[in-house]
Write a structure and sequence with these properties.
heterotrimer; A alpha+beta; B mainly alpha; C mainly alpha; B: 7 helices; C: mainly alpha; two-stranded antiparallel ribbon; disordered C terminus
Chain lengths: 264, 215, 597
C-alpha cells in the first residue's frame, strides 16, 4: 500500500483538475440583467488565468509526487537554490498580479464613478426583515424622516415626516417590491433602520451593505424587463434567510403606473 | 552582609558595557540558551518590552477608535476635572522617587532605597485614589459613562490605565517584600524591570491626557 | 509580569529536577511539553464540538424541509424535529468562533509551538515557564465560558463569529445577543490574555534562548513561523481586546461606540447615538486578517519541515521562504479592509486595501513554487506526515487562487458573503491549518508520547479526509458563483437557489464522511499514545535538532549538555556524506555553504 501513495496522490490531483475544469466550464453566474458586464468579464479573465495556474501547479504537484517516489537506487539532488529561477517566478507573479490589480482598480473606479445626470433616484430602507422602497416623487427630493415617527402599526415603516412639504409626493411601496425602469440608470440610496443588512441583486451584480447610520448610494442600469430577486447577504438575525424581495424591471413609460398599481 | 551579596552589578542595562556583568556570573541562565552560550539579551527584560509593545498596541487601537468616533456629529467634549493635574504630578513624582530609589540601591544604601521605594508605592496609590476622585467629580457634574462619547472614552481609558497601574502596584508589593529581605540578589534586575513598567505607565498617562484633552 | 523576574531562575531550577507529584507533573505543569499536549488535546476536543456544530449546519442546508425528531432530545435548538432559525445562527457563530480561535489558533500555535520551540531552538524550556503554565490555565476557562454560553438563557452568541454590531450590541436584535454574546466577549478576553502570555514566551524564547550556533537563518521553517505568529498575535490581538471592551460597554453600560442614533428595533426606538458600526469592523479585521495568518503560517512551517524530511532533499530557496513569510506577515497588517469592500467604506480605501491584497499573492506564490522545486528530483518517502504536507500544498494552491478572485474589489461585489468566500477560506485557512496540524501530529508524535502513530490507519485517515475535504468545499465555489449567500437558514426560500439543493446535499454527504472519518484520527491518536510502537530517538532519519534527544525528551529536554548546532536542519542527500542526512549538530565540514554560514 505504501508504494501506491504516490500514484494515488498523482491521480487525485488529476481528478481534481479534470473535474473542476469541467465544472468551471458551466455558466454558474445568474443571468446578467444589468450593465455590469465588466464584472462578468473580469470573472472570466480571472477564471482563465487562475485556472491555467491551477492546472499547471496541480499537474506538477501530482506528477512530482508520482515520479519522484523512493525507489531502490534513487538519489535526491542536493539542490537548494537558484537565484535566477527564483527571481523569475517572483517577478512574473508580481507582473501578473500587477495586471490584475490595474484592471481591478479601473473596474472599481468605473463602478464607483458619479452616476449620469438622468439617473432615477430610489431609496431602499432595510429593516429586520424587509426592504422598504421609497420614490421621491415628482419633486425628486425625499421628504424628511425621523426614527421617532416609525410606526409599523400605522404603516409608517421608515418614519416619514408627513409635515415636510417634500414628503407630500414621496411614494412608499409595500415592503419588498422594487420597481425599476429598463435601460435607465438608477441611483439606489441604501439605509438601514436597525442592524447591518446587505442589498444583494444576484442578477445585477449588485451588492451593498445597508449600514445603520449611513446612507450609501450606488448606481447601475437594469438591462432587461422581468422579475428578479433581492436577497439579504449580511446576517441580520433570525429572519435573515427570508428577507427576500423582488425587483420588477419594467418599461420606463410604464413605471409610474406599475408603482401606482403596487401601492393600490 | 549586604556588600558581598551586592557585589555584582545589579542593574545592568544590556548593551551598557561599563556595567554589563559577565554572563556566567550575573545573568540568569534562563530556560536554556545552550549551556555555554551568552544570552543575546536578558530574556526577562526582552519579554517585558514585548509586553509593553502589546499594551501600546491596545492603546493605539483605542486611540484610532477615538479619532474615528470623534469625527461624528454627536461629539461634545467634557472638561478635564482639575484634580487630574494633581494626579499627573503625583505620578510624575512617583517615577522620580523610583529613580532615586534605584540610585540609592546602586550606592548600596538600603535604608534610603526602602524609603524612596516606599514613597513610589504611596504616590502610586495616591494616584489611583485621585483617579477615583476625578470620576466622582465628573459624576457630581452629571457626566456619566454613557453621557457622551467623550465621557465614555474618558472613563474607559482612565479605567484601563488604572487597571494596569494596579497591576504595577501588585508587582510593587512583591518587590517591596524583597527589598526588605535583601533578596535582590546578584543577577536579579527586579527594580530595573519594575521601573521600566512604571515609567511606561507614566508616559502612557501623559499620552492619554494629551489625546483626551489636548488633541 | 510580577513573575517575570523569577521565571528565569525557576527555569534553571527545572533543568535540575522534575516535579514528581502527579498534579504538578501533568496538571499544573510548567514543562513546555506537558503544556503543549494540554493545549493540543483541549483544542482537539474543541474541534470535535465545533465539527459537530458544522454537521448540524450541513444537515439543515441539505434537508431544511425534513424533520429529525431524534434531535429534539439532543438539543433544545429543535422544535418538533425542525431546527429553530436562532439555533442555526448560534451554530455558525460558534462553529466559526471555536474553530478559528480555540482550535486552529490553539492546536498549531499554542500546542505545537510550546511543544517544539525549546526542542528546535535547543533550550531547556520556554523563557517563562510559569507564565506558560498560567497561559494554559487562562485558556481553559475561556473554553469553558465559550461552551457554557450554549446553556444560558437565550443561548449562545448568534451574531456570526465576526460579531458585527449592532446585531451583537443590541440585546434584542437576536436571541443570542443576550447573555450569549457577553459570554462570547468574556471568553475572547480569556483567550487573548492566554495567547498574549504565549506570544511573549514564543518571541523571547526564539530570540534569546537559541543554542550555540543556531543563528536565525539556521532555524527550521516551523520556528520562523512560530516567531512571526507570536509577533502578529502580540501586535494584532490588542485591537480585538479594545473592540471587545467597547462592545461590552455598549451592551451593558449604554455607551455608543458602535451603535448609531436613530435605530428602530421591533418598533422600539433604540437609545444610543452617533456610534459607528464600521469602527468595529475596522478594529475586528485589524486583528482578523493577521489572525488568518496566525492559523496558516505554522502549517506552512510544518509543511516545509516535513517535506524536506521525506523528500530527502534540502528545502529549496530557504531565504526566499523566510522572506515570503516575513512579507506575508507584514502585509497582513495592511489588507484588513478587503473584508469590507461592500461595507460602505470609502471606495478609495477599498483601492488601497486591494493593492496590499494583490501584493500578498506574490509571497504566497513563491512558497508554492519553492515547495514544488523542493519536490523536483527528490526521493519521496510516502509516510503519513508526508501525505498531509502534500495535502497542505494542494489546498494552499486551490484556496490561494480563489483569493485572486476575491481580492479584485469589483469582483468581490458579487462574491462577498457568498459560499465562494466560504470555499476560499475553508480551503486555504481552515484546511491548510488542519492538514498542517494532522501532519505535525504524525511527524512529531514520537516527541510527544515516545511512540509512533499507526501509519496504515493514518493513511486511511488522510485519504478519507483529503478526498472528502475537496468534495465538501470545492463545490461551494460553484454555488458561490451562482450567488448562494452564507449564513442562510433555508436557502430554498429563494427561487434562484432552489436548483442547488442536490449540490448542497452532495456537500452535506461529503461533510458527513469528512466528519466521520475523523474517528480514525481519534482512535489512532489515543491508541498510539498508549499502545503505539516505541519510537527511537530519530525514527524518521530527520536532520533537525529535536531528533537528537530521546523520544519523548526527558525533563530539561536533553539528558546531558544541550548540543551545539553547526548547520541548518535541511542537509539531506549531501554529496560525500556517509548517510543521506547530516544532523544539524554534526560538526563535519561537509555540505553546502548555505548550511554553514
Amino acid at each position: 500500500m505504501a508504494k501506491l501513495q504516490g500514484l494515488f496522490f498523482g491521480l487525485a490531483t488529476l481528478v481534481l483538475v479534470v473535474v473542476s475544469t469541467i465544472y468551471f466550464m458551466k455558466d454558474w453566474l445568474p443571468p446578467l440583467r444589468s450593465d455590469r458586464i465588466a464584472i462578468d468579464d473580469g470573472i472570466g479573465v480571472t477564471l482563465l488565468v487562475t485556472g491555467l495556474v491551477f492546472i499547471a501547479t496541480n499537474v506538477l504537484l501530482g506528477f512530482f509526487a508520482w515520479r519522484y517516489q523512493d525507489k531502490p537506487g534513487a538519489q535526491a539532488a542536493y539542490w537548494h537554490h537558484n537565484a535566477k529561477l527564483e527571481w523569475t517566478w517572483t517577478l512574473v507573479t508580481a507582473g501578473i498580479m500587477f495586471m490584475f490589480l490595474f484592471h481591478a482598480l479601473g473596474l472599481w473606479a468605473s463602478i464607483q464613478k458619479t452616476p449620469p445626470a438622468n439617473a432615477m433616484l430610489v431609496e431602499v430602507v432595510a429593516q429586520q426583515f424587509a426592504w422598504n422602497i421609497r420614490y421621491p416623487g415628482k419633486d425628486g427630493i425625499f421628504g424628511r424622516t425621523d426614527a421617532k415617527l416609525v410606526d409599523p402599526g400605522g404603516f409608517n415603516f421608515i418614519g416619514l415626516d408627513k409635515s415636510d412639504p417634500n414628503a407630500a409626493d414621496d411614494l412608499v411601496l409595500p415592503q419588498n417590491q422594487l420597481y425599476l425602469p429598463v435601460d435607465q440608470p438608477v441611483r439606489v440610496r441604501i439605509l438601514s433602520l436597525d442592524v447591518i443588512h446587505s442589498f444583494f441583486l444576484p442578477n445585477f451584480r449588485v451588492k451593498q451593505d445597508a449600514m445603520p447610520g449611513m446612507a450609501i448610494e450606488i448606481w447601475f442600469t437594469p438591462k432587461q424587463v422581468g422579475d428578479y430577486e433581492i436577497a439579504c447577504a449580511e446576517h441580520c438575525g433570525l429572519g435573515h434567510y427570508r428577507m427576500r424581495g423582488q425587483v420588477h424591471v419594467v418599461q420606463a413609460a410604464g413605471l409610474d403606473t406599475a408603482i401606482a398599481a403596487a401601492i393600490e | 552582609m549586604a556588600t558581598p551579596v551586592l557585589d555584582a552589578p545589579l542593574f545592568a542595562q544590556p548593551g551598557n558595557a561599563a556595567v554589563a556583568p559577565p554572563p556566567s556570573a550575573a545573568l540568569p541562565e534562563g530556560g536554556g540558551g545552550g549551556d555555554s552560550t551568552p544570552l543575546r539579551f536578558d530574556p526577562t527584560r526582552f519579554g517585558l518590552w514585548a509586553f509593553l509593545g502589546t499594551i501600546s498596541m491596545l492603546f493605539i487601537g483605542f486611540t484610532s477608535a477615538y479619532m474615528l468616533r470623534r469625527a461624528s456629529a454627536d461629539w461634545s467634549p467634557i472638561s478635564a476635572p482639575p484634580i487630574l493635574w494633581l494626579n499627573t504630578t503625583l505620578l510624575a513624582a512617583s517615577s522620580l522617587t523610583l529613580e532615586l530609589a534605584r540610585r540609592r540601591l546602586r550606592a548600596l544604601d538600603l535604608a534610603g532605597t526602602a524609603r524612596f521605594f516606599g514613597a513610589t508605592g504611596l504616590l502610586g496609590a495616591l494616584f489611583v485614589t485621585g483617579q477615583f476622585l476625578a470620576w466622582r467629580a465628573l459624576r457630581a457634574q452629571g457626566v456619566f459613562l454613557a453621557t457622551n462619547p467623550h465621557s465614555s472614552f474618558f472613563y474607559m481609558l482612565t479605567g484601563i490605565h488604572v487597571l494596569h497601574l494596579s497591576g504595577g502596584l501588585v508587582w510593587f508589593a512583591v518587590i517591596g517584600a524583597r527589598v526588605r529581605r535583601l533578596a535582590l540578589a546578584p543577577g536579579g534586575d527586579g527594580l530595573g524591570l519594575f521601573a521600566t513598567y512604571w515609567h511606561f505607565l507614566g508616559l502612557l498617562w501623559a499620552y492619554l491626557l494629551f489625546v483626551l484633552f489636548v488633541l | 509580569m510580577a513573575h517575570a523576574e523569577t521565571a528565569a531562575a525557576e527555569a534553571h531550577a527545572h533543568a535540575g529536577h522534575a516535579p514528581q507529584a502527579f498534579i504538578w507533573k501533568y496538571v499544573f505543569s510548567t514543562d513546555h511539553k506537558v503544556i503543549g499536549i494540554q493545549y493540543y488535546v483541549t483544542a482537539m476536543l474543541m474541534a470535535l464540538i465545533a465539527g459537530t456544530l458544522a454537521m448540524l449546519i450541513r444537515l439543515q442546508l441539505a434537508w431544511p424541509e425534513k424533520t429529525f425528531p431524534a434531535l429534539n432530545f439532543l438539543t433544545k435548538g429543535y422544535t418538533d424535529g425542525v431546527m429553530n432559525p436562532e439555533f442555526y445562527a448560534m451554530l455558525f457563530t460558534m462553529h466559526g468562533t471555536i474553530m478559528v480561535f480555540f482550535v486552529l489558533s490553539t492546536a498549531p500555535v499554542s500546542g505545537f509551538g510550546n511543544m517544539l520551540i525549546p526542542l528546535q531552538v535547543g533550550a531547556r524550556d520556554m523563557a517563562f515557564p510559569f507564565l506558560n503554565g498560567l497561559s494554559y490555565w487562562t485558556f481553559l476557562p475561556g473554553c469553558i465560558v465559550i461552551l457554557s454560553s450554549f446553556f444560558v438563557g437565550a443561548g449562545a452568541a448568534a451574531g456570526g463569529w465576526t460579531s458585527y454590531p449592532p446585531l451583537s450590541a443590541l440585546r434584542s436584535a437576536v436571541p443570542g445577543s443576550e447573555m450569549g454574546q457577553t459570554l462570547w466577549i468574556i471568553g475572547m478576553v480569556f483567550f487573548i490574555a492566554s495567547f498574549t502570555m504565549g506570544g511573549l514566551n514564543f518571541v523571547t524564547t526564539i530570540l534569546n534562548l537559541r543554542t550555540k550556533g543556531l543563528s536565525m537563518m539556521r532555524m527550521p521553517m516551523t520556528m520562523w513561523a512560530m516567531f512571526l505568529v507570536a509577533v502578529l498575535g502580540l501586535l494584532s490581538f490588542p485591537a480585538l481586546t479594545a473592540a471587545s471592551l467597547m462592545l461590552l460597554f455598549d451592551r451593558h453600560f449604554a455607551t455608543s461606540f458602535f451603535v448609531p442614533s436613530g435605530l428602530v428595533l421591533s418598533g422600539q426606538l433604540v437609545n444610543h447615538q452617533g456610534g459607528s458600526p464600521l469602527l468595529w469592523q475596522h478594529l475586528f479585521w485589524f486583528l482578523g486578517h493577521p489572525e488568518v495568518y496566525i492559523l496558516m503560517l505554522p502549517a506552512l512551517g510544518f509543511t516545509s519541515d516535513i517535506l524536506v524530511a521525506f523528500c530527502r532533499k534540502p528545502i529549496f530557496g530557504y531565504k526566499a521562504m523566510v522572506g515570503a513569510m516575513i512579507a506575508i506577515s507584514g502585509l497582513s497588517f495592511v489588507v484588513w479592509g478587503h473584508h469590507m469592500f461592500v461595507s460602505g467604506m470609502s471606495p478609495y480605501l477599498g483601492m488601497a486595501f486591494a493593492v496590499g491584497t494583490m501584493l500578498i499573492a506574490v509571497p504566497s506564490a513563491v512558497k508554492v513554487f519553492n515547495w514544488l522545486a523542493t519536490l523536483w528530483r527528490s526521493r519521496i518517502i510516502f509516510t503519513t506526515p508526508m501525505l498531509w504536507a502534500l495535502g497542505v500544498v494542494s489546498l494552499f494552491i486551490s484556496g490561494g487562487l480563489s483569493g485572486i478572485w476575491l481580492g479584485q474589489t469589483a469582483l468581490d461585489i458579487h462574491f462577498h458573503d457568498t459560499y465562494f468566500v466560504v470555499a476560499h477560506f475553508h480551503l486555504i485557512m481552515a484546511g491548510a491549518a488542519l492538514f498542517g496540524v494532522f501532519g505535525a501530529t504524525a511527524f512529531w508524535f514520537p516527541k510527544m508520547f515516545g511512540r509512533m502513530m499507526h501509519d496504515g490507519l493514518g493513511k486511511w485517515h488522510f485519504w478519507f479526509t483529503f478526498l472528502a475535504y475537496y468534495c465538501t468545499f470545492f463545490p461551494m465555489h460553484y454555488i458561490g458563483l451562482a450567488g448562494h449567500m452564507r449564513r442562510i437558514y433555508d436557502p430554498y426560500q429563494y427561487e434562484f437557489l432552489k436548483q442547488f439543493q442536490p449540490l448542497n446535499q452532495f456537500i452535506t454527504i461529503s461533510a458527513f464522511i469528512l466528519g466521520t472519518s475523523q474517528i480514525l484520527f481519534f482512535v489512532n491518536f489515543f491508541w498510539s499514545a498508549f499502545r503505539g510502537k516505541k519510537a527511537s530517538e530519530n525514527p524518521w532519519n530527520a536532520a533537525g535538532l529535536e531528533w537528537t534527544t530521546p523520544s519523548p525528551p526527558p525533563h530539561g529536554n536533553w539528558p546531558g549538555e544541550i548540543p551545539e548546532v553547526h548547520r541548518w536542519p535541511f542537509d539531506y542527500s549531501v554529496p560525500g556524506a556517509e548517510k543521506d542526512f547530516v544532523m544539524q549538530t554534526d560538526p563535519a565540514p561537509i555540505g553546502d555553504k548555505a548550511g554553514s554560514h
